[in-house]
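Lab meeting notes turned into a lecture example. A postdoc, R.K., suggested we walk through two folding results consecutively so the class can see how the record format repeats. The first protein's sequence and structure tokens come next.
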Amino acid sequence: MASGEFTVTDLRRILHAAAGESDGADLDLSTLDTDFTQLGYDSLARLETGSRIEREFGIKLDDTTLLEAETPGALIEAVNAQLAVSGTP
């Protein structure tokens, strides 16, 4: 299980594992407010990403949260909020 804050680096790594290295645009600080669809990630890639985040970080994210987080920045915020609630260090 990972610990600490969920970062753009974590999201990039997990998205690439879930969707494939060649799918979607690369994430960095300049793309945090860009819609996942504009970056080339569909809802299935986001759901698989959420599943991987849950396993790695030991938290639970519901599908609504995953689908309402339409940008990488919003997903990072949602994951960090859940980490804070769960008390995961």
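The second example is placed directly after the first for contrast:
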Amino acid sequence: MVVRLCLSGPVEVVLRGRAMDAGPPQRRAVLAALAVDAGRPVPVEALIERVWGADPPEGARRALYAHICRIRRLGEERDTGGRGRLPVLRRPGGYQLDLDPDAVDLRRFRRLVALARVSGQPRDRQAALLRESLALWRGEPLAGLRGAWPARVREAWRRRRVDAAVRLADLEVHSGDPAAVAQQLRDLLDEHPTTESVAEALMHALYMAGDGAEALRCYAQLRHRLAEELGAEPGHGLRELHRRILLGRPPRGALYMPSASADSDTDARTGSVGQFLLAD
């Protein structure tokens, strides 16, 4: 693939394996607003709202066109036989970044996670797909971009990443080294200290590794954080797991179950999520 776009971490264009300067923040925001819908037309009004918000300046349309012209010329200075250009096509009422969605890291991430959720697959195949998807993660999506739309994208993809990591941990804890899985989950919980699905997966891994006492300490710490920061108590699933560990009973089956609805959202503190429309 000659051209790739990275939206996890700073917005970046990668041409023949080398990162290119995508321009100032506003141009990177235009590129991201197109890339999240790569292969599909995006109305001009939607692009303007994504870049400038609900109250855009008077010259937003002219600025949008100028940025698109510069984006089209990215990579022209290299000898790529014309394949280094970013094909932004004019469509009725809008523009379309005419790239394979797999050329955009977060779009590929979503496809791999969806494949991992197809029923009937062997657990090792599911785990391999999830590892591949998580390896695409470079950091906070759209890093450095301001505004309501980038913030929504970041939150949606934060939840997607957590969801994939928890699912992978559940697969690996039954087929690998629970202690190693627990360490990975500790790191993830440090990033998301009030996310119950991560704490639940960590407690499960610790118990399976033979460290029920540490699993109980993890619960106590999370309960304290939820009370202090959110004024909330742990959810039913976490309380039930805590009860079973106290009684010395093994956790019931898999902790992670894919969402029944592909478009459902859940409580932000659980970190569990089905599909999000990235461009929402």
